[in-house]
Amino acid sequence: MTSTTRVPPAEITGIKGALMKRMATKMMGKVPTPLGVYWHNPKVLKASFAIGNKVQKWDTCDENLKSFAHMAVASLVGCTWCLDFNYFQAYNENLDLEKAREVPRWRESDVFTPLERDVMAYAEAMSQTPPTVTDELSARLLERIGAAALVELTAVISFANLTTRGNVALGIESDGFAEACDLKPLAVPTARPGVASAS
User: Fold this and answer.
1) Which residue of 39, 93, 167, 171 has the fewest CB atoms within a 10 Å radius of its CB?
2) What is the C-alpha to C-alpha distance for residues 30 and 195, in angstroms, rounded to an integer?
3) What is the spatial distance between Cα 156 and Cα 66, in angstroms, rounded to a whole number?
4) pLDDT digits (tens, 9 = 90+) for 39-66
5) Under a CB-based contact definition with an 8 Å cutoff, are residues 149 and 61 in contact?
6) pTM of the entire predicted model
């Protein structure tokens, strides 16, 4: 579960704080650790929520693909909070849970389609420093999902990097949402993935 964060969570107070705690508890069953950590800077918290809410409203790209992409970034970066939360969200949104739980070991698993593998390879390639996205991988995705969906997928992966890297830097770890829902544990890769490549 959650370890000690590098910035201790603030006490969430006031009318806005009470409202946020109530909404978070209704949606997730409890107040998530990041809310307390980011409560230290309400402007940053508000901007993060605003971006996140807009990202959730995008609907051109398949939801499963976006979920797998975000989880692939979280797995690569090491954000246990994002992995756990996205698995929990996949459950709440009736997405493919068997595939979602396999994302941390997507290269080894046989449950994914070639398109899903390309999406996760793209997510990892975008998340490398510097990015390692190839023309060939982009062209395959463009052909299969179209320009609008590829732009959306790219933006979702960019947002995933914002959230996962911030959480890891602040020491925010899993809050155990998936475990609380009695979901099977997330798969564990047998080896750390290397530089993303085409499937």
Assistant:
1) 93
2) 36
3) 7
4) 999 999 999 999 999 999 999 999 999 9
5) yes
6) 0.91
